[in-house]
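Saturday, quiet lab. Running sequence design on the structure tokens for the scaffold JK sent over.
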């Protein structure tokens, strides 16, 4: 099989894209319409997206839930202050960023190998004419 490298790189590209789509599990919660919970399958960490009720934009604030499963909007400031001072929030963000950067690096490398392999095949066929 002459085009083994292209087949393997396309196969791994499909697997990487599948892993990317399956990373987040959006959880249902009835606690508040302003809070949306999601679970990062790669790091095993639960995150919450907070949409301020009086904000004029759809931007959210996102932070990890440490030692709890849900949070109330009234307790949010105390929770963030406590875990920000201890450095736990930063550690969770760093861990998430490392996984994301590693994934994007693998994905980019795989795309480059796939395009390079396709280019080599195209040049070889072009020179055979």
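Result came back. Writing it out in full:
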């Amino acid at each position: 099989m002459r085009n083994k490298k292209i087949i393997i790189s396309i196969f791994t590209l499909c697997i990487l894209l599948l892993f990317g789509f399956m990373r987040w599990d959006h959880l249902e919660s009835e606690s508040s319409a302003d809070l949306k919970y999601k679970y990062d399958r790669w790091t095993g960490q639960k995150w919450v997206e907070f949409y301020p009720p009086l904000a004029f934009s759809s931007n959210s604030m996102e932070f990890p839930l440490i030692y709890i499963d849900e949070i109330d909007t009234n307790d949010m400031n105390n929770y963030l202050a406590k875990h920000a001072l201890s450095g736990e929030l930063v550690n969770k963000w760093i861990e998430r960023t490392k996984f994301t950067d590693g994934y994007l690096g693998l994905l980019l490398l795989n795309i480059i190998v796939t395009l390079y392999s396709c280019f080599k095949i195209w040049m070889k066929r072009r020179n055979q004419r």
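Notes for JK: The chain is about 55% helix and 15% strand. Helices lie at 4-21, 76-86, 88-128. Ask whether to fix the surface positions before the next round.
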